[in-house]
UniProtKB/TrEMBL annotation:
InterPro entries cross-referenced by the UniProt entry: CB (IPR044068), DNA_brk_join_enz (IPR011010), Integrase-like_cat_sf (IPR013762), Integrase_catalytic (IPR002104), Integrase_recombinase_N (IPR010998), Integrase_SAM-like_N (IPR004107), Recomb_XerD (IPR011932), Tyrosine_recombinase_XerC/XerD (IPR023009)
Active site residues of this protein: 161, 185, 255, 258, 281, 290 (o-(3'-phospho-dna)-tyrosine intermediate)
GO molecular function: DNA binding; tyrosine-based site-specific recombinase activity
HAMAP family cross-referenced by the UniProt entry: Recomb_XerC_XerD (MF_01808)
Location (main, coarse): cytoplasm
Biological role: Site-specific tyrosine recombinase, which acts by catalyzing the cutting and rejoining of the recombining DNA molecules. The XerC-XerD complex is essential to convert dimers of the bacterial chromosome into monomers to permit their segregation at cell division. It also contributes to the segregational stability of plasmids.
Name of the protein: Tyrosine recombinase XerC
Record key words, sorted: Cell cycle, Cell division, Chromosome partition, Cytoplasm, DNA integration, DNA recombination, DNA-binding
Ranges for domain Core-binding (CB): 19-100
The organism's place on the tree of life at top rank: Bacteria
A GO-annotated cellular component: cytoplasm
Keyword flag Transmembrane: no
Family of the protein in this entry: Belongs to the 'phage' integrase family. XerD subfamily.
Amino acid sequence: MLNMPTNKKPRTPSAINIPASMPFLRTYRDYLVANSVSPHTRNAYLSDLVQCATFSKDPIPYWNHEHISTVLDTLKVQDKSPRSIARILSALRSFFKFLREQKLRTDNPLAQHKSPKLGQALPKDLSEQDVEALIYAPDTNTTLGLRDRAMFEVLYASGLRVTELITLETDRLNLKQGFIRIKGKGNKERLVPLGLTAIEWLEKYLNEARPKLYQSTIDYVFLTQNGGVMSRQNFWYMIKRYALIANINAPLSPHTLRHAFATHLINHGADLRVVQMLLGHQDLSTTQIYTHVAQVRLQQLHEQFHPRG
């Protein structure tokens, strides 16, 4: 276990500015915090509710079925996507659930409203060859290149969310046993194994590169060139930059290597429930999307190699 300074500076997104005319949202925000809802989800819910409040002169806590219908009609006129509408309905459902739990309401004005069908959103596919090219793209003779190689190796070996990677703390590493402890969504912890290759590159980074970046008491594993905490946007730019170097033309997202991790495990015969545990999904149905990715891949291979494909 690494012994590093432990004066941590938690990184959270900027809080949403709640208008003075909506004090009920402050109480709701405290409720979300008490229920360990992530800062990103809290901000999304609060932002959506502030937006919704502009659709009616009546305060949201007093809305009924007709108010919700007005919101949906307004969103459609604004040409909002089904995904945006579903997200706003999710915020409203959470808020009215809060009101019922606080005994402020007994009904649910959203009971007759269903979220729009979104279809099956398949993760962006990245071949094993593309992953290898991306991982090899950083120049490991440089401090930042060594950091980036270690980040890619850890991400592909563990399937972490990008937020989990950039906020990974040194005291959560156990490289002797080959595990890291991850605090995921809802503050739920899980143990994630690392392969030998990822451990080797992580140790190399910690011994050779991180001391050159470490300029304060920040206890995160991966630091910026100024010794600060990397943002999701920083990581996204990094992915795109190395994709250009590696001549990767496949669509990319910040979770490219997480999706590749899950898809490649299933392609090689991993059990779906094992992948669920590694990814930190609470519901197996969330993981089942990767079986569709694998089926598409199998169909492509069949068409390519079967004599009657």
